[in-house]
Amino acid sequence: MRQLQIISLAAFVGFVQPAVAHHLDEYDARIRAEASLPAAWFDCRKTDDCDLVSVPCQSGLAVNASHKEEAQDLLNHHYYFCLGSSLDDTVAACEARHCVTEPKKK
Description:
It is a single chain. Helix content is 32%, strand content 19%. With 106 residues, the chain is of the alpha+beta class. It starts with a helix and ends with a strand. The relative contact order is 0.19.
């Protein structure tokens, strides 16, 4: 009987664990789609090409620095219902020639 309880608990934990995801999983793609941001605004060659823009009430988003003002305007327009600032928990990086949002190292 005890073994059955342990197996049941292990199966439950194995089932529940994948449901826990980092809040940045698919974050870039979701914000870009929600705000209809052009893909070209995220091209980069090196990390210095990328910078963060504020997404009201959410984590900052990495974009190409040359499109930062345009991206900020669109994000402010899209998320107008939030009066708060973005969370200071991300950094911008360039991976595979695209600006990506990554968690800040603690």
